[in-house]
Amino acid sequence: MNKPPSPSNRHDTTPWLMPTLLVAVIFAVLVFASNWAEPSWLALPVAKGMAETAVSATVDQANCRYGTAAIGEDHVPWIDTLGAGWYLSFQAAPFAQTPQNGAEFVHVIRVSEDKHPNEALAQFSTFPALTNGGLGALIDANPGALWLIGNEQDVSEVQDDMRPSVYARTYHTAYNFIKQRDPSAQVGIGGLSMMTPGRLQYLELVWDAYVGYFNQPMPVDVWTFHLYILSEIRPWDGGNSDGRVAVGTDPALAKKAPLNANPALCSQADVYCRAEHDSLPIFKEQIVALRTWMKAHGEQNKPLILSEYSQLYPFVDYDDPVNPTQCFLQDENGKCFTEARVNAFMNATFDYLETAVDPNLGYPNDSYRLVQQWLWFSLVVPPEHSGGSSNLLQQNYAIFAPGSMAAFTGVGLNMDSQISRHALTVNLKASRAHAAIAKSDPISGTATVTLTADFHNNGNSSITDPFLVTFFKDPALTQVIGSQTIDPNLRGCARHTYQATTTWFDLTPGTYRYWAKIDSTHAINESKNDNVVQGVVFIDPESVYLPLVTRR
Fold first, then answer.
1. Based on the domain organization, do 201 and 62 belong to the same domain?
2. Are residues 390 and 532 located together in one domain of the fold?
3. Is residue 109 helix, strand or coil?
4. Which of 224, 229, 297, 407 has the fewest CB atoms within 10 Å, measured from its CB?
């Protein structure tokens, strides 16, 4: 690990600025059996201003909108305390310890490319390997899970570092391995580090390569991304800046670092300053850019997860009596990345993510929200490391009782407060009634069909109580066809599609309409204005006459 720059050379480019370098180092150690010395940062003093007395641990119910990165198994109890509804560790295997509040573990399959001058000949690897004893065993043990293929594969050297066409082949192979083993699994693209023009070109190159190789659109159940505001190139020498040029993309698209750290350049559209690292307008711009790209590729009706973000530039107070504003790192305006600054960014972005809706771009099954779930990086990394200013836990969290509020930093307490502001809700939304087609029996002259209705829970918490889905012959919902009792654990945030079915008997040739009502007996305390969906049935469709519409 390279030593981070001192304030005197704080504008130098170094790998420590990449979003999840600590994870990459740990991952490389585990995979390649490199030597690892226990880092000395695990026993640093308590952060100033934090209480040192233990407070009883609490378990808050899971809010599926909010997640966090838990790199160590001993981080798990604090997921409960926060009430976060999901987490990841940048690896595929879950921890043995799981949150008591039922928070979801998202699996990350790491990938790597064995470089070859000819991309078509390049080899790739996944970790775990795509074998029965590797990834196969994990899939079998975690049915219906979400699997992300890769982590910042757009980032060279310090992350998964894959050229777009190689990633397209890797994704195809891993996707099919997972789906053949568990059709109920969800598979998502690994999160790119941000959504700049260069990163969108990377995404476009992946998409085009997939279509070129396999003659079909890339099958993605869940789209994910990371969101950091980092310059990508140094315009004075063409070298990588804090965020690095996306692998395999045109450097002319890269966001530039300001020459001589000149804050006057920050207003230029092709420049990202460190002073803009917490820019809410740019944060919004990147999200809208990705949703716009998704719609252009027929992917609007898919959930979108912000699977990693926070403030990466570290803050360490030097306690310099001569220069009290001295800190580990300053932006172009001479400002530090303090706890107050991080909290302001967290609050502004949480408010935006909770309320950002666009009927033209958003996900229809989640009331047109732009983003379904988001994850804060991280529970804890070293203070001088990339993301250190965003830590939710103190460096010496382990001395506190598991889950104790006293272990949190000011940022962690702020996140706990922000999550607590939002009441836990559920909402069943009827999303689709499938068309049914059948041929009548030549003897009886009738047919039997299976009716199927899809629905989602787009609230922010799970539904665990049973309810009824009833199918009707009439729009007034008085003539019952049949019902099904649903009694599973229905996760929220509209990421999962659930189904109910019933059988309709003795239909003669013709066209029929049917209506399905989700929670038809009002057993669940939720909105009832989006619970009904209409479908159609065709019996002997070759003899059914439909109106013909032509265009002059």
1. yes
2. no
3. strand
4. 297
> What DSSP letter does each residue of 118-170 carry, written as one string?
SGGG-EEEEES-SSIIIIIHHHHHSTT-EEEE-SSTTSTTTS----HHHHHHH
Query: 3-state class of 284 per DSSP?
Result: helix
Q: Alpha carbon of 32 to those of 1, 35, 126, 128, 234: distances in Å? A: 16, 9, 13, 12, 32
Structural domain of 446: 428-543
pTM of the model as a whole = 0.88
Residue 549 lies in a domain: no
Residue ranges in the chain modelled with pLDDT below 70? 1-58, 324, 544-552
Instruction: Give the integer Cα–Cα distance in Å for 412 and 66.
Output: 13
Cα(240)–Cα(62) distance, rounded to whole angstroms?
Answer: 40
Distance in angstroms between the alpha carbons of the first and the last residue of the chain: 69
Q: Which of 420, 453, 472 is the last residue of a domain?
A: 420
| Burial (CB count <10 Å: 0-12, 13-18, 19+), residue 473 | middle
* Cα angle: 192, vertex 194, 200; to 5 degrees: 75
> Which residue from 212, 211, 203, 178 is spatially nearest to 108, judged by alpha carbons?
178
Helix ranges restricted to H, 182-248: 197-214
Amino acid at 544: V
> Phi, psi at residue 179, to the nearest 5°?
-70, -35
For residues 513 and 433, the answer to whether their CB atoms sit within 8 Å is: no
Q: What is the pLDDT of residue 139?
A: 98
- Write down the H helix ranges in 243-322: 280-296
Q: What is the dihedral of CA 191, 193, 194, 198, to 10 degrees?
A: -100
Residues 206, 184: Cα–Cα separation, whole Å: 25
Count of residues making up the chain: 552
DSSP for residue 436: E
- Regarding whether 395 and 481 lie in a shared domain, the answer is no
Instruction: Report the SS3 class of residue 228.
Output: coil
Amino acid 357: pLDDT = 98
Cα distances (Å, whole numbers) of residue 109 to 51, 96, 169: 38, 18, 15
Residue 526: in which H helix or E strand, if any? none
Nearest CA to 409 out of 401, 421, 424, 397 is that of 397
Strands 428-433 and 447-457: antiparallel
Q: Is the separation of the CB atoms in 537 and 511 below 8 Å?
A: yes
Name the domain boundary from 390, 420, 450: 420
Tell me, what amino acid is at 16?
W
In whole angstroms, what separates CA 280 from the centre of its chain? Answer: 19
Instruction: Please tell me the predicted confidence (pLDDT) of residue 433.
Output: 98
Is 535 found in the same domain as 476? yes
- The DSSP secondary-structure symbol of 78 reads H
In the three-class reduction of DSSP (H, G, I as helix; E, B as strand; rest coil), residue 388 is classed as helix
Determine the Cα–Cα distance for residues 274 and 329; give it in Å rounded to an integer. 10
In angstroms, the Cα distances linking 498 to 428, 469, 494 are: 10, 11, 10
Whether 331 and 230 share a structural domain: yes
